[in-house]
Every structure is written in structure tokens, then in C-alpha cells.
Amino acid sequence: MTLTRRIIVIILTRLDGQRVAINEDLLVFAEQTPDTVLTMSSGQRLMVREPLAELCDRIAAFRRSTTVPVIPGAVSHG
Fold first, then answer.
1. Is the whole-model pTM more than 0.85?
2. Which helix (H) or strand (E) holds 38?
3. How large is the average pLDDT for residues 39-66?
4. pLDDT for 22
5. What contacts 59, CB < 8 A, 6 or more positions away?
């Protein structure tokens, strides 16, 4: 059996037009000042072109794509 690991990141655009892949698990917070500024868990700050609302939508979509739905009535074996 071959296991495939799927890595999903959020692709954003720096102010200079360079594309950057962000691991949203390492995002501490984001603010609109007026540019969107991301503060990562390392303390690194990134400014991106995407508005804060779009970033939130992308994070929500990312989480939906990586979450296993709960089946009502399913038995947990944990």
C-alpha cells in the first residue's frame, strides 16, 4: 500500500507581486493597516495584497478541505 501525503497551503501575493505559500497553522494573527499584515509564530511579518476578508475566506476554505466530516450516529473507536 502506498500512502500519499497531501500538503495544503494558502497561496498569497506579496506587495511586490511574488507569490508565497503560507502554512495557516503558523499564522498568529492578521491585520489590515491598510495593507494586510500577517504575523507568523516565528515573529516574521509579511505584507500581502489580499484583503483581510479574502484571507479569512481562504483560511476557512483551507480548513473545510482538511477536516473530516462527522457522520451522525457513527461509533468512535478512540
1. no
2. strand 36-40
3. 90
4. 92
5. 10, 24, 27
The total number of structural domains that make up the chain: 1
Instruction: Supply 65's cell numbers.
Output: 478541505
CB 43 within 8 A of CB 59: no
In 3-state terms, what secondary structure has residue 58?
helix
Residue 59 domain boundaries: 10-64
Q: For 14-24, what is the mean pLDDT?
A: 94
69: cis peptide before it, omega within 30°?
no
In a domain, 18, yes or no: yes
CB 20 within 8 A of CB 27: no
